[in-house]
Amino acid sequence: APRERDRHQTSRSKQARSKQASRRTSSAMVSTTPLVVLCFLLVLACSNANDCVSNGYGCLPESQCPKEARVNYGGCSTVCCDFSKLTGCKSKGGECNPLDRSCKELESESGSCPKGQKCCVWV
């Protein structure tokens, strides 16, 4: 009878270990599910993040991109802007500086600067 009892206890402890392992596996699956979902959402967000730039446009603050130059692409925290439709020194990546300042001048846009200044681009 003692052997049979030992065998029965061994069988019971194997079943208990099996249930514990099963619970660990299912809890591991449950705890990785949010991680998988998070990774999926990150990949989805990153795939849209450069829509504007990858289509040849750029991101600008709303105040610097007129409505007629805005395009409907995502990926900007500001607005997606068609740079080819912009005019002016600042929109071409330059800044207005005094005429006596040494710089690479963007002559085509210097007219958009105030009198006595020119459009400088830094290379």
From TrEMBL:
Region called Disordered, residue ranges: 1-29
Signal peptide location: 1-49
InterPro entries: Carboxypeptidase_inhibitor_I68, Myo_ane_neurotoxin_sf
Gene Ontology terms, MF aspect: metalloendopeptidase inhibitor activity
Keyword Nucleotide-binding on entry: no
Biased composition (Basic residues): 10-22
Record's keyword annotation contains Signal: yes
Pfam families named in the record: Inhibitor_I68
Lineage: superkingdom: Eukaryota
Annotated keywords: Signal
UniProt-recorded name of the protein: Carboxypeptidase inhibitor
